[in-house]
Structures are given as C-alpha cells and as structure tokens.
Write a structure and sequence with these properties.
six-stranded antiparallel sheet, Jelly Rolls, single chain, 17 helices, 3 domains, TIM Barrel
Length: 667
C-alpha cells in the first residue's frame, strides 16, 4: 500500500536519492540495481567451427557471419553473388569461448548471475565445463546463477551453437506437420524463435547465422535486485493516474521509496516479488506525438530500503505521461481503427520499418536511431515495427520518446507456429519480457499479435499447398488463434498498451477490408493494378501499401561488379528478390511517364519517379478521407541490404525522391 512521506523523513530520503544517483552514474546505466556490480564480458572472445583446428578472434556482441568476414574466411555476402557461396554457414556448428576473471570483490557478493541479453539461437552455455543451460529463442534474455561455479581467478565461458536449420528440421519432424513457409525453402523458420527475414524475404536474401548478438555480463548483487519496472497509465477527468510495478528477486524485506524528477512522491511495502505504487499528475503535463503537442520526459526512481535503513537496490527510468487508446467502434460504415492519445483522436502518418541490417549487431543502436531521425525529418508521427524482424533496442524507443514518434510494435510472429507444449511456454516468456521492457515508453502505442497470418490462412491457398487438411488443419489454426487471441494479450495485457490480435483482419481484395479495421492494400504491385488504384482503395487505417524503386547506381557500384551494372544483367536480376521481378516498375514507367529507359541510370531515375508518384497518390487519398481513414503507414521506410525495395531510404541512409514527397505531404 502506498504511503506519503512525513516531513521528518524527507532529509533521509533525499540522502538516499543522492546515493542512488551516484551509483547509477558510476555504472553508466539506468534500471540496474544500485548495489549491483556489472562486469561486461565483451572482450577476449574467440570462435571456430566445431571440429576444426584454429580459434579466431571474435567480436561480442556479434554474429558468426561478421566474425568470418572480419577474419577473411568468407567473402562479403552483400557483394555480387556471394550470398550463394556462404549458405554452408547455416549448416555448420560454431563455438565461442572467453576467460572470465573473478576477483575477490566480485565473489564477495551473495549472488552472481551470468546474463546473456541475446543468443541466436540454439546454444549450450558452459562455465568451467559445467552446463548452465540450453537456449532456443533469439528474442529472450538468458540468465543463470553462477556464484557456486565461479572460482577465484580465471574461469572458462564456452558457448556452443547448434545449426539453426538442423535444429529446425528436428523440431519440424517432432511436430509432425509441415507449416507454411513461403519465403523459406528449408521450411524450418516456423519452428524457430528467430528473425524470419533472415531466412529470405521479398526485400532480402537468405543469411541464417548464429552468435552472441547482444551484450553479455556478470551481475553481482546482495539482498535483492530489480528485475523490471512496468508502468500503466489511465486518463481521468483532469489527470493521468500512473500505476508502477517493480519486480524484485532475492529475499530482503524492503520498502520502496519513489521519486519523480528528484522529488519524493511516496512509498510502498514489498509484497512477494514486487512493489506496487500509484500516483497521479495533472494532464497538462502530458506527452504528445509530434505535431500534436510537446514531449516532456520525466524520471521515475525507486529505492528499496531494508528494515535496517540500508538501500539494497534501486532502479530508475525515463517516461512520459500519456494515455493511448485504439478505438475500434462500430459505425455506419463498418468498424473504425483510430488511435486516441490523451483522449484525442489523431491521424497517424508514418511508415513500416525493417531491421537496418541482416546482421543486427552490425547495425547497432546508431542505425535504429537514424531511422527515427529520418521519420522525424519526414514529419511522421508513427512507425510500425514489422513482425518478421527483431524487437528494436532501447535506444530506438528512447529516440522515439524524444522525437514524438509513436510505435506500432508487432510481436515477432510472421509465420504460423507449432503453438503448443514447450514452444508455447517459450514464446509466452518472450512476450512477457518484451512487454515489460517496452511498456513504459510513451512512444509505444500498440502491440499486434501477427502480420497477415489470418488473411493468409483464409485467402492464400496454404491448405492445399502445404497439405493441411482435416485434423492437421484444425490443430494448426486453432492453436495459432489461441496464441494470438489469448496467450499474447494475457502476457501483454499487464502493460496497459492496446493490443490487436492480427493485421489486417480482412484481405486487400474485398470491400470488407475497406470498411473495417486496418488494411494492407497490395492491389498495386502484387495485384498488377496501376498506381492510380491507390486513390480508390482507402481503408479505415492503411497500415501497408507500397511501390518499389531501385537505389542509385552509386550505391549499387559498391556491391556489384561494374561490368554487371547494365540493364538486364544477371547480377541485377539476382538482386531483385520479389517474385514479381521488375515488371510492375516497367509497366508503371511506361504508363505514368510514357518512357522506356535505355540505360541503367535512366531506369533507376524513372523507378524512383513512379514510386514518388505512387506515394503521393496514396497519401493524398488517405489524408483526404479523414475521419473515414485515420492512418497511413507506407511500406517501407528503410532497407536491410543494398537492393531494390519499397523503401524511402536506401541501405546506406540515402534519401530517395519519394521521401521528399512524403515529407511535404506529411508536413
């Protein structure tokens, strides 16, 4: 139960605050327990293919492809046809090792945890030849208590990665049903909690790797340690009510003292594995998306004090006061799809984003922040994080908080899954972790349960193509619908962020999709309709639509042999990943420009011109249809490799002409 500070306690509590702040500054991160000693394990790693001789220097965080490339053991997969020559990597097994030095100061702590923020994907982790555990999910944090296994001085940490594809084949055989995998010739991606786009997509080649792709560290602590801080907000008549949930591990009896922007606001007793606390602020302190108001950010701090008055742990995080609703209301047209921020309906202007690289650790935080900068310069107020990539790093959401860019966050669910047994518990833990991590960001506006899987099941002929009939068919769709409609909202419902179970609900080729919910309109490109059709297919919220163009030849020359930089060359045909080839681009150039370019540069310029025209037509139609239509998110903002796609920004961050058009219209 929350309690207010008495005047006599303020001096003591402010002293606590000063100490906590000093500790947090000293370790350089927020959200880590005040008395936790953090030892980063990013240096001294080596790697090799299992069963081979020499060990090579490795970068952690990193991936096996980037390590192999750095050592000159494979050619650059992004150049020429080299993707094809490195496919053997996905079938091999790889091992990484380093030496961990444990000094007396570390071992003096009551608890020492080994924490991997991300392991891709099937790994066995050993410390001094003792198996700590096995991992099977790229999107989860993996942690083990290691105090009893550490010895003073040198310790050996060893990570063995099994072949992702071989493990996927084993899981497919155990499940006994072949699940749809249109973009993955191996058919293994549905059974694996790994980024789907790395298995190949219509904007990217196949590069299935493994590695320690996120930071790894030792965390040493005493008494209690903070596991998470989650915030939920509700709008009242003239205020915003905030509910705070701080998760704890350890057994110290504690009271949590809370501070807002350095000032004490109350306290609450620990109950079980958490501390709960509530407070309210006037709504004039609210955070708003870009173009609708300011983006004030605040700092919430919690210090946990034991019965002897000692601070045993602390945490803090930045957040903004805001409420968000997704209004899906029946009306005379059908069913709306409108975001209301702090009670006000707002038209959403933005784009979909994909990971900035096929090797996520190579892109790093800076590439994700650059995406936010592009969105900000283009006057966007929403980005959709697509289900076939990865959950973005904290730096992306922090940048969105500052810039006023709302985030539509898909659960990483771009395939039907074997949604039962151990797999179900695995993804349940993933969703809980990611929901808790992201929920306090004011930029987070929506969680979505999957990308296009409901419409695919109903319209794409998967039952015939993959021989899904009878009990197999019923089992697959029932389990997946339960995953989207029950398991995900149960795990994410604790965050207070709106949830929709699928996007879109209806296929783009029917009138129902135009009247109800969000729409992915692909009549242009996939349906061979002219770009003018974008003006006549306006839904209640158009969350996907797009038209391809090629990046400039200056970029292509960095990755393609100059002799292949010719119209119709094999290298250019190979780099086009869409099954439609360049045919829709040529058709649009001839219809819209009345031209047939004879040079590569002429073709590239024309492709970018018709792309810009397509986005102009669509955005003007969507924005002009308010309040029937309350959002437009084009596909896509960025690229993950150098090739043709629907993007506004190429792989190296260069703007295409379409982005200037989008910027003008969104402004």
């Amino acid at each position: 139960m929350a309690r207010r500070f008495s005047p006599a306690s303020r001096g003591t509590l402010l002293t606590f605050k000063v100490l906590v702040t000093a500790w947090l500054i000293a370790i350089g991160v927020g959200g880590v327990a005040a008395q936790t000693k953090v030892l980063s394990l990013h240096h001294g790693w080596t790697f090799r293919q299992v069963g081979t001789g020499p060990w090579y220097q490795a970068d952690v965080p990193g991936e096996v492809h980037t390590d192999l490339l750095r050592q000159g053991l494979i050619p650059d997969p992004y150049r020429d046809f080299n993707v094809d020559s490195v496919q053997w990597v996905e079938r091999a097994e790889w091992e990484y090792r380093c030496t961990v030095h444990a000094d007396a100061g570390l071992l003096h702590h009551g608890h020492v945890d080994l924490v991997f923020k991300g392991l891709d994907t099937f790994a066995e982790v050993y410390l001094n030849d003792s198996l700590l555990g096995r991992t099977d999910n790229m999107f989860r944090t993996w942690s083990w208590p290691v105090k009893k296994l550490l010895k003073p001085g040198a310790n050996t940490l060893h990570v063995l990665f099994r072949s992702t594809v071989a493990e996927g084949e084993r899981l497919r055989k155990a499940y006994g049903i072949r699940l749809p995998a249109d973009s993955d010739p191996s058919g293994t991606s549905p059974y694996i909690r790994k980024a789907a786009y790395q298995f190949g997509w219509d904007f990217a080649p196949r590069l299935v790797g493994c590695g320690i792709w996120k930071p790894v560290e030792l965390q040493a602590w005493n008494g209690s340690s903070v596991t998470a801080m989650r915030l939920d907000q509700e709008l009242e008549a003239d205020s915003i009510r905030v509910r705070v949930h701080v998760g704890l591990k350890g057994d110290a009896a504690t009271t949590g003292f809370f501070f807002l922007d350095g000032l004490p606001i109350g306290s609450a007793m620990r109950e079980g594995d958490h501390i709960g606390f509530r407070f309210s602020v006037h709504r004039d302190r609210a955070w708003w998306p870009a173009g609708s108001g300011p983006q004030p950010m605040h700092r919430l701090q919690m210090e946990a004090v034991d019965d002897n008055g000692r601070t045993v742990c602390a945490t803090e995080r930045s957040f903004g006061f805001r409420t968000v609703e997704l209004r899906q209301e029946e009306d005379s047209i059908g069913r709306s799809f409108t975001f209301a921020i702090n009670g006000e309906p707002i038209f959403m202007k933005g784009a979909n984003v994909v990971p900035p690289d096929l090797f996520p650790s190579r892109a790093g935080d800076s590439a994700w922040v650059a995406l936010v900068r592009h969105a900000q310069r283009a006057h966007m107020n929403m980005l959709r994080v697509w289900a076939g990539g990865i959950y973005p790093p904290d730096a992306f959401f922090q940048a969105c908080d500052t810039a006023g860019i709302l985030v539509w966050q898909d659960v990483m669910c771009a395939n039907l899954m074997p949604a039962e047994g151990g797999f179900l518990e695995n993804i349940r833990q993933e969703v809980r972790e990611q929901g808790a991590r992201l929920s306090a960001h004011p930029s987070l506006a929506l969680f979505c349960g999957n990308n296009e899987l409901e419409v695919a099941w109903n319209n794409w002929g998967w039952q015939a193509k993959y021989h899904l009939h009878g009990t197999d068919s019923a089992r697959v769709i029932a389990n997946n619908r339960a995953l989207w409609q029950q398991v995900f909202p149960e795990g994410l419902g604790r965050t207070g962020v709106p949830y929709t179970w699928t996007s879109p609900l209806s296929n783009w080729g029917n009138a129902e999709g135009l009247r109800n919910g969000d729409l992915h309109y692909w009549g242009v490109w996939h349906g061979d309709e002219p770009i003018g059709a974008l003006a006549n297919n306006v839904g209640r919220f158009v969350s996907e639509y797009g038209f391809q163009s090629w990046p400039d030849s200056v970029l292509l020359a960095k990755y393609i042999d100059p002799e292949e930089l010719l119209l119709g060359s094999g290298a250019l045909r190979w780099r086009q990943r869409s099954y439609k080839t360049d045919a829709p681009i040529w058709k649009a150039i001839e219809k819209e420009l009345g031209d047939r370019p004879q040079t590569l540069d002429g073709f590239i310029d024309a492709s970018q011109a018709v792309q810009a025209e397509a986005y102009r037509i669509a955005i003007e139609a969507h924005m002009g249809a308010q309040p029937w239509c309350m959002g437009t998110l084009l596909w896509q903002l960025n690229d993950c490799w150098p090739g043709p796609s629907w993007s506004l920004v190429d792989y190296e961050g260069n703007w295409k002409p379409a982005l200037d058009v989008v910027r003008r219209l969104y402004e």
